[in-house]
Amino acid sequence: MGHPNVPLKFTHPSSRLQPFTPNENLNNALGAIRVLGLEMMEDELKPHLCTVLLNIQERNRGAAEQVVISGILPVLAWLLRRRGPLALLVAKLVAELAKESVVRKGFGDAGLVVALLSALTSGDQDLLRHAAQAVARVSYDSSKHQKSLLRKGAVPRLVAVLLRFPGDEALEGACLLALCNLSNMAVPEEAGVAWERSPSATPGESVFRGVAPRTCGLVTSVTVVHVSQWAPAQHAVSIEVVQRCAAPFVDCHAGKRAARWFPFAALWRCSKTTERKEPRRSSLRTLVFHTFL
User: Which of 13-27, 168-182, 215-229, 234-248 has the lowest mean pLDDT?
Assistant: First the structure.
């Protein structure tokens, strides 16, 4: 005769409660942010922001959905625009949230797009880096956000940051990735693009080269960004991507060429070709647009 409570021995209490603990803590933190954020109780707000950040960084199951349901995105936008003591932490959280497609879809309606553009005028390099990362992630796969950011002046702000902090490699990389994604090139962070400044013979021009290895080393993608001053406080930005192919790969894919033009509200031109052996003039895609600082 078995004891009626025997089945309980096969389920450890900690294994039953563990999945619910992070979500419960996250839910409490989200509720506190809704209340404390609007009341500007920053000292009490910080630990709750850290709780949300930790859950998002660890990719806890359901965390992104809980953030969306909680309605805290407008509160984060407001906190970011205020530039208070928590601005850097909020920018870091927003940049992490921008990795989640279910969350970044609501950035526009929540006012976070405008808040990020405002943050790009800050003098804090860490804040700028997080804001640029968020812009790059938001514009990666959304033509709606791309057009909104372009219309609201994202490009001149990003160019201004590039010119103002030439020695910060992490900040430069974030800004360059954002420019590429705003131009609809969709460069994923996972590509591991390594950026470096290249010498230029043209006065007033800055050249950046980014290299990302592809498919087993057969194809290497090289992104070249030119920022040229063509009038006082006016700059032209061109972005060119070249694919260098190994000889066997070139032979197998010889003769493939394509062209594509992208009509945008911004003033730029685009073309697409497939480069075979000589990468100096042909490009996978080229975009040129003018910006006013």
Answer: 13-27
Helices and strands (H, E) in the chain, number of each type: 14, 6
Q: What is the signed CA dihedral for 185, 186, 189, 194, rounded to 10 degrees?
A: -10
Q: Which amino acid is at 66?
A: Q
Question: What pTM value is reported for the model?
Answer: 0.77
- Contact assessment for residue 118 and residue 76, using Cβ atoms and an 8 Å cutoff: no
268 strand-pairing partners: 289
SS3 labels along 79-134: HHHHCCCCHHHHHHHHHHHCCCHHHHCCHHHHCHHHHHHHHCCCCCHHHHHHHHHH
User: Distances from the Cα of 11 to the Cαs of 3, 5, 19, 21, 22, in angstroms?
Assistant: 16, 11, 14, 17, 20
Contact 23, 65 (CB under 8 A): no
For the stretch 243-267, pLDDT in tens is 766 544 444 343 332 222 222 223 3
Among 26, 14, 111, residue whose Cα is nearest residue 64: 26
Distance CA 80, CA 88 (A): 8
**Distance of CA 215 to CAs 153, 183, 243, 249, 251, Å?**
36, 24, 12, 11, 16
Helix (H, G, I), strand (E, B) or coil at 165: coil
